[in-house]
Amino acid sequence: MFFTEIFHLLVEQTNVHYQQHLDRQARPSHRLLDMMLPDIMTFIALALQMGHELKDTLHDYWLKLRQLYTPFNGETMTCDRFLPILCFLHFAEIHRDLTKAKNMTEYGN
Questions:
Q1: How far apart are CA 9 and CA 28, in angstroms?
Q2: Cβ atoms of residues 67 and 61 within 8 Å
Q3: How many domains is the chain built from?
Q4: Of the candidates 33, 48, 40, 34, the residue with the CA atom closest to the CA atom of residue 8
Q5: Cα(14)–Cα(40) distance, rounded to whole angstroms?
């Protein structure tokens, strides 16, 4: 049960973090689909798998060159879906972070 709650928190906070990014944009940008539970679980699986086969760049995991091709990555999630999740992945409630930072500043810690 605890494990499931962590994944749901990741989904919720990643989407909040992404929405805050969109709100700060000066001009409208292309809106990505919200991250869903299967997206986050697939992302975590890919990230763990990447640790077993190290490549020079993230994009190399999705190369289609025969000598470098890693079918698992491309068949599991596209690079265009993986990178935004990586960029906006957030593990904590943002308002809690801001309150904690404010309290630490007020008390000099």
A1: 27
A2: no
A3: 1
A4: 40
A5: 9
Domain that holds residue 57: 2-107
Q: Is the dihedral of CA 55, 61, 66, 71 positive or negative?
A: positive
Structure tokens at 92: 């904590």
Confidence at residue 98, expressed as pLDDT on a 0 to 100 scale: 55
Residues making up the chain, counted from first to last: 109
Q: Which two tokens stand for residue 98?
A: 């801001």
pTM to 2 decimals?
0.75
Residues whose CB is less than 8 angstroms from the CB of residue 83 and which lie 6 or more positions away in sequence, other chains included: 58
**pLDDT tens per residue across span 17-74:** 888 888 887 777 677 788 899 999 999 999 999 999 889 999 999 999 888 888 888 8
Rounded CA-CA distance 100/109 in Å is: 11
